[in-house]
């Protein structure tokens, strides 16, 4: 039975009791509208911890676009049913006032790694992520926290956060889970029209093709330019970025002299998709 907890005080009591019995607590922070990607994180948490908390909180502070916040899918009853089936111990679903009570005045802001890519297109986004993750780590007191590699930059940001602030939680990155046709799972996918859903898997296909050509020796910029053209041809809208970056530090990369990832963000109608792959 998954217990739904809405206050930090109640959660703290529960976690304190677990810890007194020597249990290791794992947390999976989410914004709900759960899919198999989230459930794979819950499974990893189950395997690597004695007790599992999944947090569901649509964090207003990380949305730079109010319409995106408004349209963000929410279905707590469905989320709870999925978590029950995974044997998750607690669904922590605080209200906005619980996380940001009157007078809340703290922002956790990380420089450097937050600036390119998502940071450049979603000003303030990572301040919101870093602030809410700091709060969720404090509220849950978990020893391990599980994040998807789909949000590669977010994973790097959270790792930086816990190192810089000595937060006693180990961050575990877990592989991106994809639909059978290659589309990376995302809560936003439900907002794609049928026509756009049919186009969406081309993103992963085109990225893989470009990565293969770079590995074969084509200069990265040429491969990326061809990929941008192929995406436009497939029917995608504006491409916010399609870039090669170093795995560590997300510095711009022009070749494979160190481990790199290809990262993309682009639009299909009013839905913004992001993806990344190892090159
Ligand atoms: O990846 C997400 O769903 C969110 O950014 C997170 C980590 C739950 C913080 O709100």
UniProtKB/TrEMBL annotation:
Q: Name one GO biological process term.
A: pantothenate biosynthetic process
* Name of the featured protein: Pantothenate synthetase
Residues the entry annotates as binding beta-alanine: 62
Keyword check for ATP-binding: yes
Catalytic activity from the UniProt record:
(R)-pantoate + beta-alanine + ATP = (R)-pantothenate + AMP + diphosphate + H(+)
Which keywords does this Swiss-Prot/TrEMBL entry list?
ATP-binding, Cytoplasm, Ligase, Nucleotide-binding, Pantothenate biosynthesis
User: What's this protein's function?
Assistant: Catalyzes the condensation of pantoate with beta-alanine in an ATP-dependent reaction via a pantoyl-adenylate intermediate.
One family name in Pfam for this protein: Pantoate_ligase
Q: Which CDD domains match?
A: PanC
Family statement: Belongs to the pantothenate synthetase family.
| Pathway the protein contributes to | Cofactor biosynthesis; (R)-pantothenate biosynthesis; (R)-pantothenate from (R)-pantoate and beta-alanine: step 1/1
Residues given in the record as (R)-pantoate binding sites? 62, 154
Recorded GO molecular functions are:
ATP binding; pantoate-beta-alanine ligase activity
């Amino acid at each position: 039975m998954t217990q739904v907890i809405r206050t930090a005080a109640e959660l703290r009591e529960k976690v304190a009791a677990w810890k007194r019995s020597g249990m290791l607590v794992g947390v999976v922070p989410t914004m709900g509208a759960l899919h198999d990607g989230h459930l794979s994180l819950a499974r990893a948490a189950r395997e690597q911890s004695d007790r599992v908390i999944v947090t569901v909180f649509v964090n207003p502070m990380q949305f730079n676009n109010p319409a995106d916040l408004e349209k963000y899918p929410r279905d707590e009853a469905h989320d709870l049913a999925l978590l029950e089936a995974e044997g998750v111990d607690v669904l922590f679903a605080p209200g906005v006032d619980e996380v940001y009570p009157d007078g809340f005045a703290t922002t956790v802001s990380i420089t450097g790694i937050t600036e390119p890519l998502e940071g450049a297109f979603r000003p303030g986004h990572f301040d919101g992520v870093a602030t809410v993750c700091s709060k969720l780590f404090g509220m849950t007191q978990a020893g391990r926290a599980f994040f998807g590699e789909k949000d590669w930059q977010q994973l790097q940001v959270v790792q930086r956060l816990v190192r810089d602030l000595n937060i006693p939680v180990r961050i575990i990155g877990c592989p991106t889970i994809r639909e059978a046709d290659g589309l990376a799972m995302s809560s936003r996918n439900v907002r794609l029209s049928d026509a756009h859903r049919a186009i969406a898997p081309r993103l992963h296909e085109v990225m893989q093709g470009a990565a293969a050509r770079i590995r074969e020796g084509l200069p990265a910029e040429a491969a990326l330019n061809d990929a941008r053209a192929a995406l436009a041809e497939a029917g995608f809208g504006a491409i916010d970025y399609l870039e090669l970056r170093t795995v560590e530090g997300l510095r711009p990369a022009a070749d494979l002299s160190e481990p790199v990832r290809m990262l993309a963000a682009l639009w299909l109608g009013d839905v913004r998709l992001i993806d990344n792959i190892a090159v």
